[in-house]
Structure to design on (188 residues):
């Protein structure tokens, strides 16, 4: 077993140990809040180990293969990191459960969170597609339908959303831009 393999196993065990510590020391009602972050941490450790292994196997010579990533995992991690502050998703109902910080968002930011949540639901196989109509956005976000239209138009102008037949979504290639919309605030 190579030194790299040993380090990877050690990092994995540390990550798993951290998960078990969190899981056993918390009230069971709070555990779901930490599980996505822990899973994300374990994935990052695993991806680091794989990239380290690939580099060591190729003799530190970079190839085009070093450019390849698993887009689904990157999207899942980015979505989780972005949404965890603002919402949770009902594990049986698939409904958005707003957190306190969601209420502090502008209408445009609430639209972004709602569309990102739909993206996550589709990834969790809890929704058939990522697309939502303005009416669906209003129902899920709690903002007035009349406020949704200007928000989605402005987001489309900024290349955060895309539209098709009156429905909107945030495509995978715009996830980082959507996250920045939430991080940097909004000029609504």
């Amino acid at each position: 077993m190579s030194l790299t393999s040993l380090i990877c196993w050690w990092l994995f065990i540390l990550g798993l140990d951290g998960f078990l510590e969190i899981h056993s020391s918390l009230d069971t009602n709070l555990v779901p809040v930490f599980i996505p972050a822990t899973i994300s941490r374990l994935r990052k450790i695993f991806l680091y180990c794989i990239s380290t292994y690939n580099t060591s196997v190729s003799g530190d010579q970079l190839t085009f293969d070093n450019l390849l990533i698993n887009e689904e995992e990157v999207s899942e991690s980015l979505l989780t990191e972005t949404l965890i502050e603002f919402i949770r998703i009902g594990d049986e109902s698939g409904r958005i459960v707003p957190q306190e910080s969601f209420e502090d968002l502008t209408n445009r930011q609430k639209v972004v969170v709602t569309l990102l949540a739909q993206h996550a639901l589709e990834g969790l196989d809890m929704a058939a597609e990522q697309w939502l109509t303005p009416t669906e956005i209003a129902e899920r976000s709690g903002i007035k339908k009349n406020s949704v239209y200007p928000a989605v138009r402005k987001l489309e102008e900024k290349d955060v959303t895309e539209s098709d037949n009156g429905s909107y979504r945030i495509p995978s290639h715009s996830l980082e831009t959507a996250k920045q919309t939430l991080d940097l605030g909004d000029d609504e």
